[in-house]
Design goal:
There is one protein chain. The protein is mainly beta and 581 residues long. The protein contains six helices and 37 strands. It is elongated.
């Protein structure tokens, strides 16, 4: 059985699955379509005209033939710049250069042929925008030129979506990092709630579930993005599974010429202006060190004396590394004083200068129907009344090491000079394109990133710390094949796998024995996590130990199958497909 028959059977199977599936949806397409009508000088339709659409970067040729109504159609065309040539015996050759096709566009070019020799050429050099007359989608394409020329914080390409009318980013500014999946998913499109947008990467699903919320999974390096489209009015049937628009990113592919880029973005405290608050307090600049560097390269696959991949086989790779050491929060916190740990609260005053009384729980009595207690004499708890477990817990706090001016001398008394948040991030993507001829082409793409975080969210050292430590890892693979079954039918098969995992836990997780602070083993055995260091919250003091929000295991695996078939009959185009996840 030849390949075309096999894929025809696969198309029928896919259509059957589409009809029987409990959750059907059209496969989501990010490539472009070019169509139009070929006419003679009288305006009559011309059947049998030969059309060639040539990619200026890769040399890949797409062919089509006008039908009895003079109509032609190129389907599943990668975004890029093309040359269109139309030939017909007895007519001059029609030539149009600079045909720019963008993500998801359904462009229209009508071709009026002129009588003459075929060796004569009519060149159309007008640069009027192409009409997108076949779909009602509304949105905006962010072009490669905009991505490379406009400034973007942390080189996060998706932030350029704010150029689109009706699109608002609703996350906090500290989420501007290429691994801030949740923060970079907070988009409101035309008033929709956040997060509710659909994220696509080369047409494949690019989302995951994080803290019970729909989020983007993979954010590519800026230099790896060809362009992306924000669809604000998704009227096409292929765009489902969302309530707030679609963000579709298309990655670069290789071309006939070798191209590459390299960059390094750095940030140092001595290059920054000091903040207003630091200047007011006479403080130096806050420490912040950032290095973001990477490269990209693409071109034809060339093996000297063995294989020349020009116009057939192309590769593209991009890599980025992000390193940052920053002070993410104030390094000053409040810890118990030595006197307070020993039960002496005689110098513990509130903001109004009033002594904060410590009441003896054993002196409770009824006075005129109200239960009252007596304060400890001199506001000092006797040493024999201090619980040994409580004393050990209080001993986990470091001693005060600063005395900042203010109305309360036992608050904001600890400074951690080593309270740095450290980010280590690697981002890689690779793509291969193979053109087998004018009837079949395929591509495969692999994307990977890994973020390692070192952070202490309560600014305390040792066992008292609340570390946020661990990895976010993303592996994404997609394979796509386009086959022209006949002049009127085209089959596209796409499959993808996306595995996203966040695994945060303290370095000492699972190794701590809570009996060390005096609790009996019979009590510790009843804890939900007996080998985890406990978490304590104390009024007026910094929290102590490992909080549940810093212990997080969040895996998401998305497997998708997206076959689609396009059939042309007369003036009509019928597209059926499946988006099964």
């Amino acid at each position: 059985m030849n390949r075309t028959k096999y894929k025809a059977m696969a198309a029928l199977a896919a259509t059957a699955v589409f009809c029987l599936s409990a959750i059907p949806a059209l496969a989501q397409e990010t490539r472009a379509t070019l169509s139009g009508t070929v006419t003679d000088p009288s305006g009559s339709a011309m059947a049998g005209a030969e059309l060639h659409l040539v990619n200026r970067d890769t040399g890949v040729v797409f062919t089509a033939q006008s039908n009895q109504l003079g109509q032609y159609r190129f389907l599943f065309v990668n975004p890029g710049t093309y040359h269109l040539a139309v030939t017909m015996p007895g007519f001059r050759t029609y030539s149009r250069d600079g045909v720019q096709l963008t993500t998801g566009e359904a462009a229209t070019i009508d071709v009026p042929l002129q009588v003459g020799e075929q060796t004569q050429t009519v060149t159309v050099s007008a640069r009027a925008p192409l009409l997108d007359a076949e779909k009602a989608d509304r949105g905006m394409v962010v072009t490669q030129n905009q991505l490379s020329q406009l400034p973007t914080l942390a080189k996060v390409p998706i932030l350029m979506a704010t150029l689109t009318p009706g699109v608002v980013w609703q996350a906090q500014s500290y989420n501007i990092q290429p691994f801030s999946n949740s923060g970079l998913s907070g988009w409101s499109i035309n008033g929709s709630i956040s997060p509710s947008a659909e994220f696509l990467l080369d047409g494949a699903p690019n989302d995951m579930i994080y803290q019970a919320s729909h989020s983007i999974a993979y954010i590519p390096p800026m230099d790896a993005v060809a362009e992306f489209k924000v669809i604000t009015g998704a009227y096409d049937a292929q765009y489902g599974r969302n309530g707030g628009g679609v963000m579709s990113i298309v990655l670069k592919s290789g071309a006939n010429a070798y191209h590459g880029s390299g960059y390094e973005y750095m940030k140092r405290a001595f290059l920054d202006a000091n903040s207003f608050a630091n200047n007011a307090n006479g403080s130096p600049r806050s420490y912040d060190k950032l290095d973001e560097f990477g490269f990209s390269a693409g071109g034809p696959v060339l093996v000297p004396k063995l294989y020349n991949g020009k116009e057939r086989t192309f590769f593209f790779v991009a890599y980025e590394k992000f390193l940052q050491n920053t002070v993410a929060r104030s390094p000053v916190s409040s810890v118990p004083t030595l006197a307070q740990r020993n039960g002496d609260f005689s110098q513990t005053f509130n903001n109004a200068g009033q002594l904060m009384p410590i009441y003896d729980p054993l002196t409770g009595h009824n006075v005129n129907g109200q239960w009252v207690r007596n304060a400890f004499p001199s506001n000092i708890i006797p040493m024999d009344r201090i619980d040994p477990v409580g004393s050990k817990i209080a001993g986990l706090y470091p001693l005060p090491n600063v005395n900042l001016p203010g109305p309360v001398n036992w608050q904001n008394n600890y400074f951690n000079p080593n309270d740095l948040t450290q980010y280590f991030f690697n981002n890689f993507v690779a793509r291969m394109d193979q053109n087998f001829g004018d009837k079949e082409r395929v591509y495969a793409r692999y994307a990977y990133n890994n973020q390692l975080l070192h952070d202490d969210t309560n600014e305390l050292p040792g066992m008292a710390a609340d570390p946020r430590y661990g990895n976010k890892v993303n592996n994404a693979f997609v394979f796509d094949s386009v086959t022209i079954l006949s002049p009127s039918s085209t089959l596209d098969l796409r499959a993808s796998v996306n595995r996203w995992l966040q695994d945060y836990q303290p370095p000492n997780y699972g190794s701590y024995n809570a009996t060390a602070i005096g609790w009996p083993a019979s009590l510790v055995s009843q804890f939900p996590e007996p080998r985890r260091f406990p978490y304590f919250t104390l009024s007026n003091y910094q929290s102590l130990g490992s909080s549940g929000s810093n212990i997080w295991l969040a895996p998401t695996t998305t497997i998708s199958l997206q076959p689609s078939i396009a059939l042309q009959h007369g003036r009509h185009i019928i597209k059926a497909g499946l988006d099964y996840r």
